[in-house]
Amino acid sequence: MKNEVRLSPSWTLETGSGSPVLKHRVTGKIYGPSDVVKMYPSWPPQPARVSVRRAGNVGRRSDEERAVIEEFCAPIPNPAVKTAHIHIRTTMDRKNSYVRAARTEEKTLSEWMTDTCDEATK
After folding, report:
1. Are 14 and 3 contacting, i.e. CB atoms less than 8 angstroms apart?
2. Which of 33, 91, 101, 110 has the fewest CB atoms within 10 Å around its CB?
3. Mean pLDDT over residues 42-69, rounded?
4. Strand residue runs (E) in 16-122
5. Is the pLDDT of residue 38 over 70?
6. What is residue 24's predicted lDDT score, i.e. its pLDDT?
7. What is the rounded CA–CA span in Å between residue 71 and residue 49?
8. pLDDT computed for residue 106 by the predictor
9. Residues ≥6 apart with Cβ < 8 Å to 101
C-alpha cells in the first residue's frame, strides 16, 4: 500500500504508522477521519473523511491511492449511484403538465425528466 497520497500541495494522506491520517504539510498537524477540518477557505468545517472524499478525485487515482482514500473515508460510493440533484424553479401549471406527460408514459416525474434530458443530449 502507498505510504502517501497527495491530495493537494498542502494536504496528504499518510499511512506510515498504520491507519491513514490526514496531514497538513505546512503545519504538520494530523487529523483522523472524524476530526473537523477546514481544508480550504471556501470549504465549510467538516469531518476530515468528508473533505478527503471531496478532495480525493477518486476517479483519477491509482488502485493503491484509492485503497488509502477508501480506508480513511470508509467505502467510497459507487460512481454509478445517483447522488446528484437538479432543482428547477417553474410555475405550478408547467410542473403539472410535466407530471401528466410522465403519467402517460407510466413513469415518475424524475424518471420522465431524466429520460427526456438524456434524449435531448444524444
Report:
1. yes
2. 91
3. 87
4. 21-24, 30-31, 36-37, 46-47
5. yes
6. 95
7. 10
8. 94
9. 112
- CA–CA separation, 9 and 103 (whole Å): 51
Reported in sequence order, the residue ranges of the chain that DSSP labels E, i.e. its strands, are 4-6, 11-14, 21-24, 30-31, 36-37, 46-47
Helix 48-55 / helix 63-73 crossing angle, nearest 10 deg = 160
pLDDT given at position 2: 59
* Sole residue written with cell 496531514: 23
- Spatial CA neighbour of 20 closest among 58, 92, 74, 60: 74
- Burial label for 63, CB within 10 Å (0-12, 13-18, 19+), is exposed
Provide the 10 A C-beta neighbour count for residue 73: 22
Place of cell 503545519: 27
Q: How far apart are CA 37 and CA 94, in angstroms?
A: 43
Q: What would the pLDDT profile of 59-92 be if each residue is shown by its tens digit?
A: 778 888 888 888 898 765 667 777 788 999 999 9
Decide if 47 contacts 33 (C-beta within 8 A): yes
